[in-house]
Specification:
It contains ten helices and 16 strands. The protein is an alpha/beta fold. The chain has two domains: about 1-185 and about 300-390, Aminopeptidase (3-Layer(aba) Sandwich); about 185-300, 2-Layer Sandwich (Alpha-Beta Plaits), CATH 3.30.70.360. The chain has an eight-stranded mixed beta sheet with strand order 1-2-4-3-5-16-6-15, with helices on both faces. It has a four-stranded antiparallel beta sheet with strand order 10-12-8-13, covered by helices on one side. It has a two-stranded antiparallel sheet with strand order 7-14. The longest helix is centred in the last third of the chain and has 21 residues, at about 265-285. The two termini are about 15 Å apart.
Length: about 400
């Protein structure tokens, strides 16, 4: 079976490469992946793979049944949406849509899963159980396509016994993969602060209430929640990436808007941080004569990789790729809505290496020069097929 999977992945590599490049050229953002969904469906239809469309607007769900299909079900997931980024790569498959780009590798995720499904379809008479697959919209934008797909029943009829998700990883060389059992990726919340003062002339600040100065004090002071309130054993990050004062060199604005993100790994502490952020921000503002309104958009929970499933998957990966090509990962403060699946069924979210320093493929996720070493698609589709078959037979 291992040889068949590797051989088939080589046979269809050129096709899978073309899938990835088409996706890369035609990026679509959250819940608007209409052409992407059409393309995926056309590939599945050509390969006689049964599927349903219109799940969470643009999502696709389907199944490949092996022998004794009711014995066990394993789910495989790929995300579909792109980001609002202008691409700076000079490649033949550069984005054709100005201001949109697959800068997080979802093009590779979709192409890899399509390859996996073609492999599984070719050997369906040789494995037990059922493979359910999910092409999911809107991983990048709250509330996240995973939660919507779950609400619409993708984890029922049948309910999978486990789910695998794969994500590209620019810190790892192409041909390698990485796993982390237990807590892996952080929860994420969006923090919106509106600091209110009293506008005025910059030359006579005593007649105003300086919302800019209040905002600056709030931003600096809130970091004390991380350094002095957080348990040092609970990773916590509070970052602010957007500040809008909209005054002038000599105009103090009435309001300042501050946008940021909170990341952590503990739900009780997460809730406490929400309360502490609001209390401290308002307290500082009021002590300086102003006020502060706080709005916190509750985002994705942290990703927990089922330990038994993930440790088995790591072993399966070593069987397929060799020990030198499989690494154990550390926790990350980035976030993923794959976490919603893991709250319901055992999940394993692992990483696919895509780095190639010789080809200068070294850019980070969400950057305008992000790209992948496309040889990694061979590893991606073969490994996911192997994980599904091995786990079905476990």
């Amino acid at each position: 079976m291992k040889q068949k999977i590797l051989q088939k992945s080589e046979q269809i590599f050129i096709d899978v490469l073309s899938y990835r490049q088409w996706f890369h050229q035609h990026p679509e953002t959250a819940f608007d992946e209409k052409h992407t969904s059409d393309y995926i469906s056309s590939v599945l239809t050509r390969n006689q793979i049964s599927h349903s469309r219109g799940i969470a607007k643009t999502g696709i769900v389907g199944m490949i049944e092996g022998k004794n299909p009711k014995s066990k079900t394993i789910a495989l997931r790929a995300d579909m949406d792109a980001l609002e980024i202008f691409e700076d790569n000079r490649v033949p498959y550069k984005s054709l849509i100005d201001g949109k780009m697959h800068a997080c590798g979802h093009d590779a995720h979709m192409a890899s899963l399509l390859g996996t499904l073609i492999i599984l379809q070719s050997v369906r008479e040789e494995f037990e159980g059922t493979v359910k697959f999910l092409f999911q919209p809107s991983e990048e934008k709250f509330p996240g396509g995973a939660s919507v797909m779950i609400e619409e029943g993708v984890l029922e009829n049948p309910r999978p016994d486990g789910i695998f998700g794969q994500h590209v990883f620019p810190e790892l060389d192409a041909g390698k993969v990485g796993f982390k059992a237990g807590k892996y990726m952080a929860s994420t919340d969006e923090i919106y602060l509106t600091v209110k003062g009293k506008g005025g002339h910059g030359g006579i600040p005593h007649q105003a209430i300086d919302a800019v100065l209040i905002a600056a004090n709030i931003i600096v002071s809130l970091q004390q929640l991380v350094s002095r309130k957080a348990n040092p054993t609970i990773p916590t990050v509070l970052s602010f990436g957007r500040v809008i004062a909209d005054g002038r060199t000599n105009i103090l604005p009435n309001e300042v808007h501050i946008d940021g993100t909170l990341r952590t790994f503990d739900e009780a502490w997460r809730k406490t941080m929400h309360q502490e952020i609001e209390k401290m921000a308002r307290g500082i503002a009021q002590s300086m004569g102003g006020d502060c309104e706080t709005r916190i958009s509750h985002g994705y929970p942290f990703v927990y990789n089922n330990e038994a499933l993930t440790n088995r998957a790591l072993g399966y990966a070593i069987e397929l790729l060799g020990k030198d090509h499989v690494v154990e990962l550390d926790i990350r403060m980035t976030a993923e809505d794959f976490s919603y699946y893991g709250q319901i069924i055992p999940g394993c979210f692992y990483r696919l290496g895509i780095r190639n320093e010789v080809k200068n493929i070294i850019s980070n996720l969400h950057s305008s020069t992000f790209d992948i070493d496309e040889s990694s698609l061979r590893t991606g589709m073969a490994l996911m097929a192997w994980l599904a078959i091995k786990e079905l037979g476990n």
